[in-house]
Amino acid sequence: QKEDIEVTLLPAGHCPGSVMFLFEGENGTVLYTGDFRLAKGEAARMELLHSGTRVKDIQSVYLDTTFCDPKFYHIPSREECLNGILELVRSWTSLTRYHVVWLNCKAAYGYEYLFINLSEELGIKVHVNKLDMFRNMPEILYHVTTDRHTQIHACRHPRDDEYFRGNRLPCGMTCQNGTPLHIISIKPSTMWFGERIK
């Protein structure tokens, strides 16, 4: 038997390029997704989920996601997380220019929203190891830098945690102008949050 199926890719909001698949055929409509992050009301603005003024009738939703587990019943909104991180980073970096924040990001992509918002709100660029991974995302290039002399770092090293214990950043920075740095670490991770929710 043959059946024509229309496949539509919808943004999953997880990391750049992440998608959900909407399959539509004679036997119904199915939405398949891995990890996704959509703000309230965001799905309502996705025109491809609608037919005229109605939401498409989706018979099945397949969630192949890390967070389909009771311990992740409550995940704070992206806005709540950003506001909490902004408040912490602002209060720390305003103490002196030697007060530095290390964003301990475990994945290569997916933190662009955080980098852009911290940079815009605080006027501080985020140090990363290399810019080439962001070349196809020009909107972030203004907010990141390879200059280590900044107060917000998202630089990485294969043994990040070990480096941090020595009160130095993964890029090797320990002081500026001979003055030791005061470093705090923030781990923006849903997995980490879920494991510690109690």
TrEMBL record:
Keyword Nucleus in annotation: yes
Highest taxon of the source? Eukaryota
Q: Which UniProt keywords apply?
A: DNA damage, DNA recombination, DNA repair, Endonuclease, Exonuclease, Hydrolase, Nuclease, Nucleus
Q: Under the cellular component aspect of Gene Ontology, which terms does the record hold?
A: nucleus
- Which Gene Ontology terms describe the biological processes this protein takes part in? DNA recombination; double-strand break repair via nonhomologous end joining; interstrand cross-link repair; telomere maintenance
Family from the record: Belongs to the DNA repair metallo-beta-lactamase (DRMBL) family.
The protein's name is Protein artemis
Record the organism: Ciccaba nigrolineata
Phylogenetic placement of the source organism? Eukaryota, Metazoa, Chordata, Craniata, Vertebrata
Q: Which gene encodes it?
A: Dclre1c
